[in-house]
Amino acid sequence: MEEIFYNILWIDDEHDSLGGTKGRAKRNGINLIPFKSLDGGMSELERNYPFYDGVLLDAKFFENEDDKSGSEDTYSSFRAKERILQLPKKFEIFVLTGQAEAYEDKTFKKAFTRVYEKGKDDEVNRLFRDITDAAKNQEDTQIRHAYKRVFDVCTERYIGEFAGQDLLKLLKVNEDPDIDFGFNIIRKIVEDLFIAFHKYNLLPIVFVSPTVSLNESSRFLAGKSLDGTFFTEKGFQHLEETHLPHQIANYLRSIISVTQAGSHRSVIGKHVKFVKTPYLFKSILFQLLDVLVWFKLYVNEKPKSENWQKIETEGPIEIHETTELISGKIINLNLDKGFAFFQPDSGEINTFIPPHLVESNTLKSGMAVLVEIEEYVDNRSGLAKTRVKRIEQQPF
Questions:
Q1: What is the DSSP code (8-state) at residue 359?
Q2: Residue 63, Cβ density class (10 Å: 0-12 exposed, 13-18 middle, ≥19 buried)
Q3: Predicted local confidence at residue 221, as pLDDT
Q4: Do 204 and 198 meet the contact criterion of CB atoms below 8 Å apart?
Q5: Domain 6-143 is in which class?
Q6: Where in the chain is the domain with CATH 3.40.50.2300?
Q7: How does pLDDT run across 87-106, given as a tens digit for each residue?
Q8: Rounded CA gap, 260 and 88, in Å?
């Protein structure tokens, strides 16, 4: 059985020097995910709060990431609490501090009831026990641990963290679901999945840009119809070596058939309203969970990429790919989540590097690289964004 860890967001401007605390937490089943400032830590928590099981603060820390030593203040911890209380999810807030004035201050301890003193073994042991007790009672935590292998796929390395937030909503549905709510979210997660197939060069870009083509993507990845006829979709034919396993192809066909918009959904809606059960919704959801677990296993085996051929058609298909390589270096490597940023030598804006590229290129902070940057439309926000698509190490 896999060991369970609780994810605790930790804001402490001196966390780089506290490796012993991180290691000790790990041995107690706690994964401390550190930030130096109010802005850095709270921006992450507000964006991805379902991922976390608790919050640990220092009494004093920076307001902004680039603040200088000496600017730490308890103002930041009070502001953090205010922002945490605004979140849809309720968190226990723990404070681990070496500041005697904060630890002994009655006003501070009235605002923060769970305060522990740095440097004392019994205090740190008590802290970790209390964090574990509070975290394991979180409903989101219980669900994520019950479906751990599924939520392991909901990272930027695979299908994205927003998919994890959506899955939490779906797995909380116990009564008759709102058909549009449930099925629309499932369809969104399938879109995330197909975007991830493209990210790993297992699906041509025309299937996911400017919008995700669900039916065409499903048929292309399956490769063949039930009678063995090869599919040709959007001018491409998928070569046999990387066709989806029959069970996965059948799952996707079933999921898309039930969740796709249009007249077919009205028939599904009538059925759900007539029988008044969540069983169809649950069956489709659990098929999706099986597909997600399979996807992680599959891409980890590094299947052959771009395994397709272009089929000549009367109307040429335009594929917009940028090939310009830009020089720069790797910065802000996040070891916990696996992503990094590219800082161009030209002084232009920094660009996000997805975790699968960080891993496959064994990137390190400060490494000189050449990159290709692509534009894409964010599946959730609909906004145009940029990211690194390809990386080459700079020649010496």
A1: H
A2: middle
A3: 97
A4: yes
A5: alpha beta
A6: 6-143
A7: 988 999 999 998 766 666 77
A8: 29
